[in-house]
Predict the structure.
Amino acid sequence: MDAPADPRATWGLPVPGELPRTADLEPLVTRVLAPNPSGMTLDGTNTYVVGAPGSGQAVLVDPGPDDPAHLAAVETALAARDARCVAVLVTHHHGDHAEAALPWGAHFGAPVAAGDATVAGADGRVLDHGARLDLAGTTIGVVATPGHTRDHLAFRLESGAVLVGDHVLGRGTSVVTHPEGDVVAYLESLRRVHDLGPSALYCGHGPELTEDPGAVLEYYLAHRAFREHQLLTALAGGARTVEELVATVYAEVPQRLWPAATQSTRATLAKLQGEGRIETATGDAVRLA
Ligand SMILES: [Zn+2]
């Protein structure tokens, strides 16, 4: 099995550091980049301002870090749209997406809605798959996308674009966290978003994917299958611990990303164990069944 080719390689996407801080993506959506770049967050967290032009209202999706400069940039984007914030939606509980949800909800006097009750807060709303939110002059569909985390949601817009949080990243691939994440659920969630036929994927990190979103989702599925194949090959070749598997399978990945790679590896091993294809023993020992 060969490594699948990333269809984005030929798309001319902005390289790290070149993503505009604020960008109007379509009439419904403005993206505001938070100043929190890192190995895991790529350029930083993308906060999306969503609303029908002329409605005077907007929804914030993934407010991101509770950072005064980021809040000022979001308020500038709201003013440019002549809109006030009427709700804060959050894709999942990780702090780089959710930290500002409750403080900014209070700041704007807007309710918070998320898949996780703690993120939504005492006065917020816990969202379920299939909910349709009539907000800011438009309708936003709630799509359960567990896998990266258990509570992960995507939001489908009337334009056909889908805000995917950390389910799909603008560059590279995402992490299935462990023990919270779930590879089987993640693969189902990738197929679920693929079946929506999205016109664009607006990612939690990195550039928006508009050229062929379906091809990116197919690449993500193929990438997961390839990693699983690599793990099984490494086990057959003598790797005996999670550390040895990560060092073998992720040899070409910078070591600063190995903690995340270790989580994805453990998550994939949990899937393989559930399928009876591997056995784990005490500690980090693992072998083919
Ligand atoms: Zn995350």
Summary: Helices lie at 68-80, 95-98, 101-108, 117-120, 183-195, 213-236, 242-249, 258-274.
